[in-house]
Amino acid sequence: MAEETIFSKIIRKEIPADVVYQDDLVTAFRDINPRAPSHILIIPNKLIPTVNDVEAEDEVALGRMFTVARKLAAEEGIAEDGYRLIMNCNNHGGQEVYHIHMHLVGGRPLGPMLIG
């Protein structure tokens, strides 16, 4: 069984967060250290540590993450100009919290994806 994370506590509302969306499959909240004017984390309510741990049964929740990203991008007013969706996996990928999450970032030009 995967270890509980800070995200699990946010899902259950045990610690405060600026939650902008929640349903039975996913929760979305503003990042506490935003890298762009709009920076929202979208997470499955089920604890899945990394992308390497995704199973076929998780496809519905992962698909919901994308439809919620589309909805929130529109609500944030960043859909037309564009935004970035980022998922990191493990240490070399830059993953810090081991509960998969999608970063929705936008509101300004984001530059190149990777820097040399």
UniProtKB/TrEMBL annotation:
Q: Where is this motif: Histidine triad motif?
A: 99-103
Q: Where are the transmembrane segments?
A: none
Molecular function terms in GO for this entry? hydrolase activity
Q: Where is the HIT domain?
A: 6-115
Active-site positions on this chain: H101 (tele-amp-histidine intermediate)
Q: What general EC class does the enzyme of this chain belong to?
A: hydrolase
Coiled-coil stretches noted in the UniProt entry, renumbered to this chain:
none
What keywords are annotated for this sequence in UniProt? Hydrolase
The superkingdom listed in its UniProt entry is Bacteria
Q: What is its EC number?
A: 3.-.-.-
Q: Which Gene3D superfamilies match?
A: HIT-like (3.30.428.10)
Q: Name one Pfam family in it.
A: HIT
NCBIfam families for the chain? PRK10687.1
Name under which the protein is recorded: HIT-like protein
Q: Which organism is it from?
A: Grimontia marina
User: What lineage is this protein's organism placed in?
Assistant: Bacteria, Pseudomonadati, Pseudomonadota, Gammaproteobacteria, Vibrionales
